Fold this sequence. Notes:
Elements: H1 2-10, E1 15-20, E2 25-31, E3 34-39, H2 49-56, H3 62-74, H4 79-85, H5 91-109, E4 116-120, E5 134-135, H6 136-156, E6 164-166, H7 187-195, H8 202-209, H9 213-225, E7 229-231, H10 244-251, H11 253-273, H12 282-314, H13 321-326
Antiparallel strand pairs: 1-2, 1-4, 2-3, 3-5, 6-7
Helix pairs in contact: 2-5, 6-9, 7-8, 7-9
Amino acid sequence: MTDLFQLLGQQQKTGTLNLKGERKVIQVFFDKGLIVGATFPAKTAEENPLGERLIRGGLLSPGNWQKARDQQKEELLSIGQILVKNSMVRKEDITAVLRLLSFEAIYSLFKWKGGTFWFDAKPVYYDPNFVEPLNAEYLLLDVLRMVDEWPLLEKRFPAFEMVLQKVNSLNTLDVLSGTPWEENRSFQMEVIYDLVNGQRTVQEIIDLSFVGEFDTCKNLIILMDAGVVEPALISATNKKGKGIQVSKYLLSSGAYLLLSVLAFFLIYQLANARWNRFPLSQEEWRGWQALHGSFKGIEDAKTGNAREVFFVEENRYPKNLNEMRERGLLAR
């Protein structure tokens, strides 16, 4: 995948790269080697990734989107020009959303386990008033960094239905001053922190922040580790807290004692049955070793990709890993 994008960029290709996975098809549009768009093809004429993202993020109402679509059929203008002309959406917001759509689509490609592709070498059409062409190689560096870090973030947010709240609703991010977390503070983090209100889920914060799934989750985890944001005692499906009764029951003295006894006997049985490699059985131990080997293979592949990118930029291979780390091609 990395080599394919680099090749199209270096050869300054113009056309549409079609990538087909198990259930999805993603199209990436190139103009003279620069990425000018990436999206999931719409199933119907009414479906449009830009419209769906603007509506989901609260920047546009479904009614105004339909009005813009109707007006576009009568005028020879792009949908972006219609929206700006009628003051429905700001130009900079459309540009930001189009860039985010491209970035998220390409980022999702690196989560695929396999697929096929074909390239249609033909002119591509886009509105230069709203689209910022992206350098394929620089974009790949960001995407590979995110793919590398995502497994750690995913463990903290296994489901985006989690609701978050501020530890102290009166605090601003000034509380980070003088702490190890101060260097992570940014305008992006300010936006995300303001969206945390004890009612919104992680997915809703992602939709409203317009900074992407990865950066939103990373900033939320930093805020949680800094002690200014925490999970709320409500779920996405029941924000009135009816499920809290279960937690109270489990915390009662009788239930706590019962769980403690059961845990003791479970650990005792496991220790007797799997003493040599407690708590793993022989089969589980072999599986762990195989998984460890897979991780090593992934790291070797990342190092290889970083070496190739270094070669493209410097016209030579790096002397050691530190050279690639200093250039930001490998994690320190």
